[in-house]
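XRE family transcriptional regulator: structure, please.
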Amino acid sequence: MLIRKIEVFLRRTGMPATRFGRLATQDPRFVLDLRNGRTPRSETEKKVEHFMNEYRERTHAY
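Here you go.
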């Protein structure tokens, strides 16, 4: 599930949820909406996965 991957990413990087949303989807409420049951489109999921992978590669976060 995407929200679980995001929660792990946020814990490991220390990134605030609103910053993650802004950087990954240009929506600061994205993570909050997911926590409240929002289901993202497959295109958005791919975009978020790509953001997390790129961020990890650039920063060697984990």
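Notes: The chain is about 75% helix and 0% strand.
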